[in-house]
Amino acid sequence: MQEQIRPARSVSGAVRLPGDKSISHRYAMLAAIAEGESRIRNYSTGADCHSTLGCVRALGIPVDEADGEIVIHGRGADGLESPQSLLDAGNSGSTIRMLSGILAAQKFDSCIGGDESLSRRPMDRIMRPLAEMGASIEAREGRFPPLAIHGAKLHPIEYSLPVASAQVKTCVLFGGLFADGRTIVHEPVRTRDHTELALREFGADIETQGRTITLHGPARLQARELQVPGDLSSAAFFLVAALIVADSNLVVHGVGLNPTRSALLDFLAGMGADVKILEIKQSAGELIGDILIRKSRVRGGILEKAQTAALIDEIPVLAVLGAASDEGLLVRDAAELRVKETDRIATIAENCRRMGLTIHVREDGFEIPGKQQFHAAELDSFGDHRIAMAFSVAALAASGPCTMEHADAASVSFPEFFDTLRRIAE
Ligand code: S3P
Predict the structure, then answer these.
(1) For 164, which DSSP code?
(2) Ligand 1 center to residue 313 CA distance, Å?
(3) Taking the mean position of all CA atoms in its chain, how far away is CA 238?
(4) How far is the C-alpha of 324 from the C-alpha of 370, rounded, in Å?
(5) Which residue CA neighbors atom 9 of ligand 1 most closely?
(6) What is the reported pLDDT for 151?
(7) Is the CB of 167 under 6 A from ligand 1?
(8) What separation in angstroms does the CA of 312 have from each of 201, 293, 304, 339?
(9) Of 347, 426, 349, 364, which is closest to residue 5 (Cα–Cα)?
(10) 42 Cβ closer than 6 Å to some ligand 1 atom
């Protein structure tokens, strides 16, 4: 599917976003192995989180969807059933990597795979710790989906993550839910802590000290009523739109502001963006607030080390902001971008080139000079949701109308993206 995006004079009004993708996945998986009926409001409308629900259903857990609420009828730690066929994670790295921790601990075997993009993403990062816990997993060429998982009685491990990955951390902790004793994970840098907060909420015995997380297994989880905050990584597209289009003034309601996710707001403010948080409340350990942003001149800057890890999903749209900033943006330590839904360094660079933007690519990042003119172009998502949305935002500031090929990729995390964009961009 192709979308046409016209240049905008302003981006203004108010938006409310679908539920956070990361949190939705975790709530659904934990509700499936909790005892009783969990109700989840504002569950992500994205295809990825529906892949997770599809897997949960295929594991014999009833899931009802009505009036924007998901009801999951959990059957406890032993309640999953052997799936009849391959579990389909679709485009979702979170689904395959996190669910594998649970599948590895079952009394049955299962097979989980996904689409062409997912089939190219590395799974050895979860296979290694799960093997240490006693699981046996086979993968295509030893590291790619589909995975054939032979369920086993897992034992607890102490594991230092070689890459900063919340998905891998989650996979190990989910395996630890079924193991007798202390599962300990050390992180090289702090990654999003939705798993730790959700586990506590569902009643697991878990504690965090610095960058070390300790889970005491086995766990008996209890069903919960939960509200998923709006997705800050989806909000990022509109925040950048408001910063690069003249006369913009936008309010984003009900956004997740978990400190392990909100580095974006500090980074934007540090570059001179006029961004304010209007109100904050708490739900199930997660912070939720409203964000007000106005068109501002942004300086640009450097993104490296722990900050790169904290902003990994926002880098495509920050590249767009960098090209419009005064001094440009230098991104380092971002080799992980090469193994996302696409090689995002390559797909960012290709769309920049099409818009006539200069970008210098490095193995682990890129440098994009500031004060650049965005030219009308035929853009392509290459099937990657965040590339579709980032460059549709760039198109708002282009010299003329742009087209986005494979724009439907946006529905992986944000099916309402183009409707919302049309509503707030004039
Ligand atoms: C996610 C973690 C990140 C992120 C992804 C969602 C999560 O991936 O890029 O979109 O929900 O835990 P990694 O764990 O591979 O860094």
Answers:
(1) -
(2) 8
(3) 16
(4) 6
(5) 313
(6) 96
(7) yes
(8) 26, 21, 10, 11
(9) 426
(10) no
| Ligand 1 neighbour 312 (Cβ under 6 A) | yes
Can you list the positions of beta strands (E) in 124-211? 136-140, 144-150, 158-160, 181-186, 205-209
> What CA–CA distance (Å, rounded) separates 41 from 54?
18
pLDDT at 67: 80
Q: How many angstroms separate the alpha carbon of residue 398 from the centre of ligand 1?
A: 31
pLDDT digits (tens, 9 = 90+) for 45-71: 999 999 999 999 999 999 999 887 999
Residue 385 CA to ligand 1 center (angstroms) comes to 14
Cβ neighbours for 135, distance < 8 A, ≥ 6 positions apart: 104, 105, 149, 150, 151, 152, 154, 175
d(CA 122, CA 72): 30
**What pLDDT was estimated at residue 66?**
86
User: In this structure, which residue's CA is closest to atom 11 in ligand 1?
Assistant: 22
Residues with Cβ < 8 Å from 387, sequence gap 6 or more?
Answer: 316, 342, 344, 347, 348, 351, 380, 381, 409
Structural tokens at position 341: 């839904």
Q: In which residue ranges of the chain is pLDDT below 50?
A: none
Q: What local confidence, expressed as pLDDT, does residue 183 receive?
A: 99
Ligand 1 centroid vs 357 CA: distance in angstroms?
Answer: 28
- Provide the residue type at 115 as one letter: D
Q: Quick one: 335 exposed, middle or buried, by C-beta within 10 A (0-12, 13-18, 19+)? A: middle
Cα separation, 250 vs 227, in Å, equals: 24
Quote the CA–CA distance of 268 and 310 in Å, as a whole number: 13
What are the two backbone dihedrals, phi and then psi, of residue 172, each rounded to the nearest 5 degrees? -65, -45
b/e map of 302-330 (b: 16 or more CB within 10 Å)? Answer: ebeeebbbbbbbbbbbbbbbbbbbeebbb
Which residues, at least 6 apart from 110, have a Cβ–Cβ distance to it below 8 Å? Answer: 59, 82, 83, 87, 103, 148, 149, 151
97 lines ligand 1 (CB under 6 A): no
Q: Using the atom order of ligand 1, give the atom closest to the CA of residue 22.
A: 11
**Sheet-wide strand order for 378-380:** 3-5, 402-405, 378-380
The single-letter code of the amino acid at 190 is R
Beta carbon of 24 within 6 Å of any ligand 1 atom: no
Catalytically active residues, by annotation: 313
Burial class of 142 by CB neighbour count within 10 A (0 to 12, 13 to 18, 19+): exposed
* Beta strands 365-368 and 360-362, pairing class: antiparallel
Q: CB of 125 closer than 6 A to ligand 1? A: no
